[in-house]
């Protein structure tokens, strides 16, 4: 099983523990990006993965590559060139104090990607899944074009495509709107992560409930077989409740609700869900189990420092089976 | 708006995380002192502040000055001289294990202050508030005398004065009792932080409820316009509930109750309340809002390592408005 | 009061905080072993202790000795020789993610101990208690033989003996079964920590309740005066409930139930109970108080990093008296 | 004595010790910028300083302000606005391995400065010195314009001006050449740090020796009273030799040569020289002593982590007086 | 260009900086093994590499794999199975205090390898070089047999083979002597790293000088085209001098002598030489340049923490060209 | 062999590496005191030791005890009582920047010792050596009296006494001069560490050379059999040269000169010499070897972080034998 992901990877810099930026003198390094996070999670679950991206050709770009490799993601398709390494600064909150992110990703090497730089044909040949998110087309025309080429190649090669249609309004700075760009990308997708307000805002597709909105999306984009979403109840920065649902065209499969306390690191928990769901759909012939596996994966990610889910199949299955006792394993 | 504070600043030394002294090999440095903590909080809220104190004239005294400056507190009135830097050793507890403090502040440079060393006239001219606490007069005759001179100067210049009349019996070692010293300091105060048992013990002012005791204080000390106090319910070292109330001569304004879990650092949370309250009284024409703002400030302080509250106005207002969800802010 | 303990001490290596092995680049060192953990706890409580063990004769073996000495345990009976230092790698979990241990203790210097290496006569003369656990006889014939010699010497000298009959099936690799070895070790014990399923599995002693099983044990092993056990309800890796009970031949003394949140370090909490109980039995003439003291000791250990309980008598008594408020102690 | 400096301040991120980027998981934070480094040095020497710059209006910009304040630099003239915080990544070398810098400063908040944003009149009124470097005009038209306005205001107010005419060719990206920009900035300077090849390249001013080139500069720019330069002999990343010379229109004053081993941090050592020289010129009426003081300051900076020189007057004078014994001071 | 290496990889644990084991409470993690060190170096130089080894199938074995991957070494041929992860404890010295190693590698997963476990045919097909050392056959019969199978397969496929015939007498514990095992492994080697005393001890091949001994080795083992060795002059733990020589059957090519001060990490510097030499022989058609490149690579390794050389081709060529100035590179 | 030492132990707090106080946010903990340093060194060399001191009865006093125990020093004679724990703050220099100490030891628990608190009779019975320094009588009358009682008891019991007559003028604050106090302490000493200017200043004993001054001391104090001193040539904070000499009444035995570079930690190197010398005098019947052993011990201490020498006999003998190559020991 081989999964290809495409998107920017940023250097994440955060103070130790729950210190604030104004008081810290050192920063912990992680690397992350929503699509690469999915790739790392899937690599931990034992799938073959490769992440397609573009890094600056200097020591920090090489460090980013090393990070992906360390966690088992194939980096043979990484391109190196001009531009900076995208960064984000994360201050981790606690209790009633929210975590905060300062992005510093403008004009990154990734955003300077051009549509002809990636040889999608060779990359996607033999792949079993291709995953993208709404962050990529928001970054630059080149990124949007490259992505579209990737999705269309996947379609031609019969590779299933998942899209997390996350929309961050402050990213779309290059002169195009998501309404112009997103529909073409959504064509040919098999699985969409989103909710009814996004469907309405991005595509004008409306539905008063998740199921109706999902059904409407499937009518508008006939290749879509699954629509999924997560639900988070934020009680505090240290305490959340989480569940997920998956509509397969006939049934909405709902996961159990996880009560998550304490939260070690909330970043990348949505990507952990997506990775778990993709793993489930590729591995089990059972949408209910796939959504349960994805939710358990996401719940476990909350306990792991960094952007990426380093949980194993065994750990996820233990939690999915209802054992959240955290009993010492010798 | 300019606020002047006066008091000792100590070097705080604590093991990393929740380690115990007997097992640690390194100590984390912070600086703190109840009055300076108020100044730092107010500086974060955007007010101009200056802290008046006395440090030893060596590298550690300079480090203490640097700490105050880093957080925006004016240090132009700091005096340097003989004596040591006061210290305290803090071991942070968790759950059922209490935090512990070992004080080592005897004969500090601050306690050697003399009443003529501070030019209160020039310091307080143009100030909008002066804050002191019951720690200062407990340290030495010179500290008590200097404080009295400051309060009287403030009165003469029409600068409102707040006093947190905290009483630590083991501090009063120089031959005077708080009953001899505190009344003169309380004369001319605008705002007092204390409770009925303190009022009774220090001044012989009795009242069976907070409101009655407050009323009695106002009769005894006619300049007092506000009496305030906080209420803490300690469920464990990691879980507290907190609220505050403010009596303005007619009404007791009560804040909402904050459920605080987990507690990152409990030290300085009372000072954070005081700073928030002073900010509120200076900024809003609304005692209820001031006490709410102070309580929210104090609640947030529990999530921040160190003695000082590094929360911003926006963060406090968000919490005050009822959003304790801790949702990631991008 | 002097307590002698006997068993292996391992170097414990764990990533900082709640990091996973695959992501960490440094490891925190502690040392621990179930019997030595009891000795350290008792030393913190003010008793004289000495731990009998065998370390490799190199810098790491010397470091292990230094660790025991740091916490007040006598190391005059430590032997040095060939073999490795036993290790274990601990990954600390959080919430729904369990802590994990990878043991690496095969062929340790301790397991190479021979029955004639220890001069039990001189060690136990003047001792007030001797403690062992079921880990030791599982490691090697030499360890089992040495232990048996120790217990028999204690019996001859009239030193009370406690045994925690913990059974780890994967340890018994040297060709003997616990059913062959454990009964002779249990002869002559005064106090046994275990439960009815262990009694049945190891000795064929059955009883449908704790009290009945305890009574049956006392019939089978007439020297036993106390049977004890702890009960843990694992809600998550960060949240447990704990209590203990002690049967003295007539009554089952039950402790209060501690709700423990957050858990800083769960390792060694059973040993902390055992140490507290031994202290209680040696110090108070009151089994109920002993079991309460042991339970409070164990509850506090959950808040302390490392394998060993560094709580003091005062702290334990405060908690035992019902004060779990974690209020700052100045 | 009050010195004003103007220029960009960057967040410096470096691996601990001499680790390489590809192997590190954490970064140490410092802040630095050639002009601000001069201000910090001067503040340590006891002068009043204020640094004029522009930071992004977020937590990291506020951290940069806090850094300057911590070391006593006035930040009352800092502007906040759009744009990023400039960064640089420093890998510290050792022996034959060179230190390496990756700059990431494009489109910083500072480079977005506009010439009307700074109220030079009020800032420079009462100042005793104004310092700039060739980095600033290389960053953007707005930075060059702002600087020119500052220099001209200083001239009008009679404030002496020093310029370090460092030229980094890769910085000049906004369409103007240093040959177009630098001459107008150099008009009205009192002190120039540069060498004959720079004089030739930037201004077409030639001279076959330092003294002749200096004389030619003074003819071309009649306000110049001093021309200075440092000389570094790099034996390895850990071992350098350093000296300086100052031409005052009649004599070349040469400092002693410092043999520097080991080098703790080479960054900012030129700025330390400049600060020491400015201090010397402002304080001693003796060019020889000024250049000696500057050289000793620079030599000491090599022993101090970070960009800024935290040496005191006493320490510099001790070294200047020939005592490089490093004897413990109690 | 693709290089295959084969051998054990150990977890290296060392105190921070130059602390001693008896005083440290934390350990820094690296992974290393002489053959894998060669692979990592070559990967940094841009060659394709894959390391063949056997790890335990648990989190630490997976961490070891991640370490190799992070630095670009292919891990597709790593086997997982029973046994422990080999460890070594390194205390880094300084000046007159020597570094010390405590090995703890007995019965590792690697030593349990069996000769049929590795599919050498597929691994070595298409490879350009195969490297082994004398550590491997010292560990177990299975390791020796596996290695012999690898060398013979390489010979059959025409892949050049290098052997570092390092001899550690304390390793050979499984009943065979190096004199029995090494000759068959040396058959078919192209390049041998060793000296005349080793040649004599292991093979009875004698020669009174390096060149004569090399010539004798080539007569005894006709496939050998190169014999090489390094020479180290240890002035202190912080100061060494290093050079290398390469005999190609006609000429002894000697490198320049590097004066290395300070030494950051001496471990793996021989492996760095070997990697540089292999790179040189594969890339340049010039034995002199190859030995110079190898020596420069080794010299740089002394400045890099950990077992592996993270120097780049550019850095090595700069040093090889004589620039050891360590000048800052922007 | 059992050695008793007596004196204050202070908590040493220092920034990591070579950071300055004004820039650090954490401090590394060590404990040290000149006499206890001797005891720790001797314990590493395998002698039985016990240190007599007085600590405050709180967690930090207990930590100090734990520190001594960790390194094998007997703490059975430590007294606990009122007063503070003495502190000193150490900033470690490099190259031309000197290390700096800020003492904060006034009114320590040790200085409050009373002459009747120590049962010297039982402590010194069976001892083979007693060591003191000139720090102790400088601290308080009680300390001086206790020391005198100890020396006199040692004399009565026939225990040899060594005194390091270090004189720090700023310590003598309690109203007595060293000229009043030191002679009585020096009576009955066997070995004195000092130089001719000290002999002259403290006792009025003059001699124009070391040998003449030593001879004069032996005339004045007939019990003295050895006079010793070290000689340090400070080239920089990172580079020293060190040697020692010992006069035994007939011959001056001089050690070789050690060139020490780099210096890791210079504190306690004199105490390391003293410990080595005492060990040598107790163990070898050869004054020359004793002074060589002491010097080698002192040279090694410069490479070890902290106040105490953790070198072993083997390491010292290796260096003493002339091997300063620092070659890796496996």
Write the layout of secondary structure elements.
The structure is a homohexamer of 330-residue chains.
Chain A: E1 2-6, E2 10-14, E3 26-32, H1 34-44, E4 48-52, E5 54-56, H2 59-70, E6 79-81, E7 87-91, E8 100-104, H3 120-124, E9 129-133, H4 136-139, H5 141-157, E10 161-164, H6 178-186, E11 191-193, H7 196-203, H8 210-220, E12 226-236, E13 239-247, E14 252-254, E15 258-260, H9 269-283, H10 287-301, H11 313-320
Parallel strand pairs in A: 1-4, 1-9, 2-7, 5-6, 9-10, 10-11, 11-12
Antiparallel strand pairs in A: 2-3, 7-8, 12-13, 13-14, 13-15
Give the tally of β-strands of chain A.
Answer: 15
Largest interface: A-B, 26 and 28 residues
Radius of gyration of chain A: 19 Å
The coarse overall form of chain A would be: globular
What integer is the average pLDDT of chain A? Answer: 97
Low-confidence stretches of chain A: none
Question: Assembly type of the shown chains?
Answer: homohexamer
Count of separate DSSP helical elements of chain A = 11
Secondary-structure arrangement, i.e. CATH architecture of the domain at 34-52 and 113-320 in chain A: 3-Layer(aba) Sandwich
Sheet with most strands of chain A: 9 strands, mixed
The name of the CATH topology of the domain at 34-52 and 113-320 in chain A is UDP-N-acetylmuramoyl-L-alanine:D-glutamate ligase
Class based on secondary structure composition and strand pairing of chain A: alpha/beta
The CATH homologous superfamily name of the domain at 34-52 and 113-320 in chain A equals Ribokinase
The percentage of residues in β strands of chain A lies in 15-25%
In helices, the fraction of residues of chain A equals: 25-40%
What is the N-to-C succession of helices and strands of chain A? EEEHEEHEEEHEHHEHEHHEEEEHHH
